[in-house]
Design a protein that fits this description.
Layout lengths: L1 E5 L4 H12 L3 E6 L8 E4 L5 H11 L3 E4 L6 H6 L1 H21 L3 E5 L23 H16 L3 E5 L3 E2 L10 H10 L4 E4 L3 E2 L2 E2 H14 L3 E4 L6 E2 H11 L7 E4 L19 H6 L7 H14 L3
Parallel strand pairs: 1-2, 1-4, 2-3, 4-5, 5-6, 6-11, 7-10, 8-13
Antiparallel strand pairs: 9-12
Helix pairs in contact: 1-7, 2-4, 4-5, 6-8, 8-10
The structure holds NADP nicotinamide-adenine-dinucleotide phosphate.
Length: about 300
């Protein structure tokens, strides 16, 4: 299969590119400011519609995974025009070009489309974003639905993995680094989500592509857990000092953008449908440890 991945320099996209190459896919790795380590690199700014059309029509992929996004939640609130351009117009550009090439399309959205008042959200629950990042991701979902016939929208939650990507650290690595350096860290006890190991998300999304599953899927970890308990699980599994984790409440710190209190996802549909199941937190953190050992981290 010829697969084009946007966001291929990122935390999820780089792992997808690496794994798909290992499964003999032909991989075209769209990146912008950072380099893509796996696949045929395609330097492209997705906000440039004509260039997006040209590249995709020349490559003629069988499938497109669109993971490129402005992902910094606070930056999206502060630079709204740019967030709209990348997340909404960029998605529309990639989706329309994929449709013109008759490629299957998988859009990576987010748990943040929900307001976080209820938690354990199902695919049928009504999104109601409370920050600008989430608003643009929801609008992008709508433009995917408008542009394509064969599409899947996948919603992960707090993606983490063994390595840094696109010049950024992820939540799990940040916690592990702080604990290894014996530094205290404040972690929220009242913010819940469904942390998603990048390699597990890759397995689930490759199955979606191979089986051409359409519609909306919550492809996250299977556990609803607070940031604090997630950090505790990391400390326990990696044999680090739990006492360095200081319980904190969301109201103690202020950010430019509001965060949902409980954006955890109900993964029953994925559990029912996929052979690659969403992982419980204990399984996922053990898998992370194995992956880090294999990489000598
Ligand atoms: N990380 C999470 O916790 C999380 C949670 C839920 C959902 N998601 C969603 O999952 C997807 C993947 O997230 P991630 O954390 O793997 O992303 P990431 O590591 O932050 O990487 C973002 C990617 O988007 C690319 N990008 C940004 N602007 C671009 C532009 N104008 N043109 C082309 N590429 C552009 C970046 O390319 P360069 O770096 O090369 O510029 C990079 O490859 C995103 O759609 C995100 O919204 C993430």
């Amino acid at each position: 299969m010829k697969l084009l991945i946007t966001g291929a320099s990122g935390l999820y996209g780089s792992k997808l590119a690496e794994t798909a190459l290992g499964r003999q896919y032909q991989v075209y790795a769209v990146h912008n400011q950072h380099s893509a380590a796996h696949g045929v690199p395609v330097q492209l700014d997705i906000t440039e519609k004509a260039k997006v059309e040209k590249e995709i029509s020349e490559i003629k992929p069988d499938a497109v995974v669109h993971a490129a996004s402005m992902t910094n939640v606070d930056e999206c609130d502060l630079s709204r025009e740019l967030a709209w351009k990348i997340n909404v117009e960029g998605t529309r550009n990639v989706a329309q070009a994929a449709e013109a090439s008759k490629a299957f399309f998988l859009y990576i959205s987010t748990d943040y489309v929900f307001d976080g008042e209820k938690g354990r959200y199902k695919e049928t629950d009504l999104p109601s974003p409370i920050n600008y990042y989430a608003y643009t991701k929801l609008k992008a979902e709508e433009s995917v639905k408008g542009a394509l016939i064969n599409y899947c929208i996948a919603r992960p939650s707090v993606i983490y993995g063994a390595t840094t990507a696109a010049g950024k650290i992820n939540f799990a690595l940040w916690i592990l680094n702080k604990l290894k350096n014996k530094e205290e860290i404040k972690v929220f006890v009242d913010q819940y989500n469904s942390p998603t190991l990048n390699t597990s998300l890759v397995d689930m999304t490759l199955e979606v592509l191979e089986r051409r599953l359409t519609g909306v899927y919550h492809l996250s970890g299977a556990s609803r857990i607070s940031r604090y308990d997630f950090a505790l699980s990391l400390a326990k599994t990696f044999g680090l000092d739990e006492a360095l984790l200081v319980p904190a409440r969301m109201k103690e710190l202020s950010f430019p953008a509001k965060r949902p209190k409980d954006s955890s996802l109900n993964t029953a549909k994925a559990q029912r449908t996929l052979k690659s199941k969403p992982l419980k937190i204990e399984q996922a953190v053990e898998k992370l440890k194995t992956e880090m050992t294999q990489l000598h981290i």
